[in-house]
Amino acid sequence: RNLETGFLVDMDNRVKVAEKIGLLLRDEKLRSELSENAIRWANKFTWENSADHFLEKVFEWFPKLASESAK
Fold this sequence. Notes:
Shape: elongated
Number of helices: 4
Strand content: under 5%
């Protein structure tokens, strides 16, 4: 999530990578904000949430399974 949880940078562009690293080293507030956002975003990806999302999609794609599982 560019500019929300970090930076999207072409890894082959060493100048841009170095610029972003330098920015993070110099700007403690930005570094902290991106870090906190990244942790919050990553915490959404629990096994339980992933399983729930998967089942929702299965039942969406195969409605007959949803009615059979309710029995």
